[in-house]
Here is the input.
Amino acid sequence: MLDEIFGFKNFLGEIVWYRYNKIPDKTKKLFFKMHDTILHYAKNKGQHIFNQILSPTGKMIKRKKMKKINGKIAVLDEYTEYERELLLTRSVIEFVPDPNIGDSGEKTGFETQKAEEIISLFILASSNPGDIVADFFCGSGTTLAVAEKLGRRWIGCDLSKFAIQVTRKRLLDIHNSKDLMED
Here is the structure.
């Protein structure tokens, strides 16, 4: 469906969110669902926004440099050192816990809920303050809540009246508390 909306040529990639704290239910006779897949599309590939997000590592990291030579990746005998790691450079994200497990204050009761931390990474990386963020299956409203906190405008839709009410309450609570995130 996203290929029809955005066009296959605007597909940027697939990211896997590995839910490391998921507890498998062995009674269901199913393969374990330990990850979610996030598809990344742009309105116009090549003109899309990609803001680098750096995170402190707490230590100096030393790695060999790599370079593309004749279309192949070569490891050089030079090193680079850094203290801050570029997030969202791997296709698997495994450092963000599932909000539906444990004592998360984010838990809304929606099985497909994403953590605000993971949604904020994507919104920060792919938009600037004032941009529009859309979620056409908003569920409990995590994307819209994070967009609001980060100073983005948003559009949200869902077929479920319950989802709309949960999202509406969540957004009003943010507005009333002025609970905004830092960009």
The first strand starts at residue 11 and ends at 18. The chain has a mean pLDDT of 80. Residues 54-87 form one domain. Strands lie at 11-18, 35-41, 54-69, 72-86, 92-93, 132-135, 153-156.
